[in-house]
Design a protein that fits this description.
Distance between the termini: 49 Å
Shape: globular
Helix content: 40-55%
Bound molecules: nicotinamide-adenine-dinucleotide
Largest sheet: 6 strands, parallel
Structural class: alpha/beta
CATH superfamily of the largest domain: NAD(P)-binding Rossmann-like Domain
Number of domains: 2
Number of strands: 11
CATH class of the largest domain: Alpha Beta
Oligomer: single chain
Length: 283
């Protein structure tokens, strides 16, 4: 069994990105990412802190806009509009979740698709489904990067994606289908989850339920990617019973240290891509 080491790969990617930033600097560009954080959600604050630190490591400038929980939807939309029109900012992400009184879909649609490094704008989602060049969401993009690094072919493979959210499962499906995998996508209404996971060569799970995937639900030699993040007794765990599933798997991601660091590395990569696109357009 081989561990898919997201920490190691993300460190390698960050080193490569440092060089790309230097090249952009020589051309007069400092890749800049704006992050909007609304409210006091502790997990969101942690994620934003991690993103800011990662930006600093590679030389990306990050601007964090911390807004009060009570901000109105209109005020938030105005800030997005301002950032959209600021040519010194190449990338923008809105940290989710947003407070209940704000329409998340409306807010995500207000982000300029050219700065949408999370890849959540319907325009970028549509391009992704069509297999066009776009900003793909960072978590599924990070999973594909892990496959590439470890030589795991998805062409012709049976893949089961568990979890069908707009930010994880659905874009994961699109990336895999674009690379000619046969993809089953399961969710809360799936009747017999094990019947899907058991026949898969690769199982990718992003649900948010500890021990959802057990050893009796996968076949021998399976590749397992665990996107889930759960806190159990103060410890971070994924959605997979790692101890037992790893005994049957050929490759498996740990939690933490698997997909998490890859998500951040892909955010940096997308930000540099946005800065490069800007440079191309303004040449
Ligand atoms: P979400 O709540 O938006 O979606 C959860 C999905 O799981 C839904 O499609 C739902 O139908 C499905 N689901 C729920 N219960 C199920 C069950 N019993 N069987 C099968 N499917 C079930 O969540 P999300 O934002 O997509 O996040 C999912 C998980 O991934 C969370 O634990 C989150 O913290 C984690 N996550 C990790 C990263 C990372 O970088 N590692 C990034 C994003 C999300």
């Amino acid at each position: 069994m081989t561990i898919l080491d997201g920490r190691k790969l993300s460190a390698k990617i960050k080193n490569e990105l440092k060089d790309e930033v230097k090249i952009l600097n020589q051309k007069g560009i400092t890749p800049t990412l704006a992050v909007i954080l609304v409210g006091e959600d502790e997990a969101s604050k942690t994620y934003v802190g991690m993103k800011k630190k990662a930006c600093e490591e590679v030389g990306i400038k990050s601007l964090v806009y911390k807004l009060d929980e009570s901000i109105s939807e209109n005020e938030l939309l105005e800030l997005i509009d301002k950032i959209n029109n600021d040519s010194s900012i190449h990338a923008l992400l809105i940290q989710l979740p947003l407070p209940k009184h704000i329409d998340t879909s409306k807010v995500l649609q207000a982000v300029n698709p050219k700065k949408d490094v999370d890849g959540f704008h319907p325009c970028n989602m549509g391009k992704l489904v069509e297999g066009l060049d776009t900003f793909a969401p960072c978590t599924p993009l990070g999973v594909m990067e892990l496959f590439r690094e470890y030589g795991i072919e998805v062409y012709g493979k049976d893949v089961c994606v568990v979890g069908a959210s707009n930010i994880v499962g659905k874009p994961m499906w699109a990336l895999l289908v674009n690379e000619m995998a046969t993809v089953d996508i399961c969710h809360i209404a799936t009747r017999d989850l094990a019947s899907h996971t058991k026949r898969a060569d690769i199982v990718i799970v992003g649900v948010g339920k500890p021990n959802l995937i057990r050893a009796d639900m996968v076949k021998d030699g399976v590749v397992v990617v665990d996107i889930g993040i759960n806190k159990v007794d103060g410890k971070i765990v994924g959605d997979v019973d790692f101890e037992n599933v790893s005994k049957k798997a050929s490759y498996i991601t740990p939690v933490p240290g698997g997909v998490g660091p890859m998500t951040i590395a892909m955010l940096l990569k997308n930000t540099i891509k946005a800065a490069k696109n800007f440079l191309e357009e303004t040449k």
